[in-house]
Amino acid sequence: MAKSWVNSAERIGADLHLELAGSGGRRAALIAALREAVRSGRLAPSTRLPPYRSLAADLGVARNTVADAYAELVAEGWLTARQGSGTRVAERTEPLRHAARAPRKAPPRARGPRHDLRQGTPDASAFPRAAWLASYRRAVQQAPSEVFGPGDPAGRVELREALTEYLARARGVRTEPDRIVICSGFAHALRLLFGGKDRDRVLGGTLAVEAYGLPFHRELLAAADVRTVPIPLDEDGARVDRLARERAVLLTPAHQFPTGGPLHAGRRAAVIDWARARGGVILEDDYDGEFRYDRRPVGAVQGLDPERVIHIGSVSKSLSPALRLGWMVLPERYVGDVLAAKGEREAWASVLDQLSLADFITSGSYDRHVRRMRQRYRSRRDRLVAALAEHAPHVEVTGIAAGLHAVLRLPPGTERSTVRAAAWQGIALDGLAGFRHPESPETDMPARDGIVVGYATPSEHAYGAALDALCEVLPPGPV
Ligand SMILES: Cc1ncc(COP(=O)(O)O)c(C=O)c1O
After folding, report:
1. Which range of residues forms the domain containing residue 266?
2. Are 275 and 246 in contact (CB under 8 A)?
3. How many CB atoms lie within 10 A of CB 365?
């Protein structure tokens, strides 16, 4: 009968699973299992094997069986035994058979751009490592044992309480912990709302979206068979008066993505009226609401009517997209369905990270970090505006009152050549065209040439050079 063993011996360093199989006796089975482990690389050269006694105890075999097996493998050259250093896997001079195949070349490492001005990420070099570690340490130290079991799909109550207070204070969101469901970010929230089969879906039918938006989100919705219908934008934001038969609309009211302006107060009221009249729901993507510079804070639309808005946020812009932590603030009628979509236990957002974020918020670290980053991004924004005023005064820069990116309006017909020239110079950035909904009619919303410049991504020391390089590739002004 096969026997499995998971080694927890103190000196082997790594767990090792052995199968003692076959009918040739325990000694032969152990020799075969150890040979296989060395041959396959599971036991690396010079790894120390466990002492006879602990291996024998773990496997339920006699100590001598282990001693004999080791001796045999030493004689065969698989293992070495030296006084004082125990039995180890031999250093191989000859490659083992399976490794003798032509060595696989490591894929060439994609060289990143010299200057990364893509929108979408915060300054990764500014992640508050020390403060996060302090929160993580406190969270793990203070956590009751049940934290280390399966998690509640709603998310840890500590985090939901911290968010209730924070979102009310910073974003004007009106809610309570029972209406918040923790998720792994905005993309996950979309999957929870629109995933599953027809009748099990939290939201069904078509979804109205802004004519410009993140292609990744459109693709994600298309993959879930959700039809998206574009509504045009003007200087006041989304034309919510154009909402037709749809029952749900996705908006970025604090800072239209990517074109930049806030949704006008009149439109905010109008979209709530629409939702009330039609029994519709507004999905509010509050992706960078914390980062506002010159203008008065724009609170969440959710605050106008918590029963008509699903407010979604994440730490992807404020801390890091690597954390995969976000939240959905739900009207009461959706809570049960979203929890059902999430499943019986937390399978997405690490419970320990949730507790760390709760501590990070309640200890004041989150506010401090956001304030520090706001100053940093504002100064970068100012440097971008100043550089353009000096070197490319004909280029209009828009969407600069908030967020981590700006849109540079270019003369007609120059977007593609500018993006190409930038790529040629090692500058990564996006043209505006890629954000446009493919079904957005030109008559409704004339396309405009432009580039989206993310000013948060480069590290502090690299930013000046990135700006210089950018100004070099912008189309010349009229002479
Ligand atoms: C428009 C928009 N919404 C939401 C997000 C956040 O996405 P997630 O929380 O899935 O990282 C981003 C990217 O950071 C974004 O650009």
Report:
1. 127-364
2. no
3. 20
- The pLDDT assigned to 9 comes to 43
Mutate to test the pocket of ligand 1, among 217, 311, 314, 320 (most ligand atoms within 8 A of CB): 314
The Cα–Cα gap between 272 and 281 comes to 9
Tens of pLDDT, residues 359-387 = 999 999 999 999 999 999 999 999 999 99
Residues 228 and 89 in one domain: no
| Residue identifier of the C-alpha nearest atom 12 of ligand 1 | 287
Most informative mutation of 183, 191, 214 for ligand 1 (most atoms within 8 A of CB) = 214
Whichever domain contains 303, its CATH number is: 3.40.640.10
**Residue 93 in domain:** yes
φ/ψ of 422, rounded to 5, equals -65, -45
Tell me the average pLDDT across 337-344: 94
- Split into its structural domains, the chain has a count of 3
**Rounded to two decimals, what is the model's pTM?**
0.82
CA distances (Å), origin 302, targets 211, 307, 328: 22, 8, 11
Q: Which CATH number does the domain housing residue 416 bear?
A: 3.90.1150.10
Q: What is the mean pLDDT of the chain?
A: 90
